[in-house]
TrEMBL record:
Protein name: HIT domain-containing protein
Family assignment from sequence similarity: Belongs to the HINT family.
Pfam families: HIT
List of catalytic residues: H93 (tele-amp-histidine intermediate)
PROSITE patterns attached to this UniProt entry: HIT_1, HIT_2
Motif segment (Histidine triad motif): 91-95
Residue spans crossing the bilayer: none
Reaction equation(s) it catalyzes: adenosine 5'-phosphoramidate + H2O = NH4(+) + AMP
GO molecular function (one): catalytic activity
HIT domain span: 1-107
Lineage: Eukaryota, Metazoa, Chordata, Craniata, Vertebrata
Amino acid sequence: FSKIIDRSVPATILYEDDKCLVFRDVAPQAPVHFLVIPKRPIPRISRVGPQDTEVRFWGNVSGMWQGGQLWRVKTIPLINDGKHGAQSVYHLHLHVLGGRQLGWPPG
């Protein structure tokens, strides 16, 4: 994800500010599937500490979502955590999926 942040790997960016980046998933599991990441690398949600104020990145973009600018369908958020949580990229990221009825596990 660091390469997406520094633009050395292309991505379809939907939103960006000084704390976070929102971009489409390269292998979408639903009609709507994008990722929200903090710009500062934080390996995983279970290792977040008081120094990790970037975790508040969700609030940075929630106003955009409430206004319907990033999606117009109901979605669910999902955070994988660690090996047993099926996390494959160790940079904290929130998946947002929607656009169809989702089962469990999502995808």
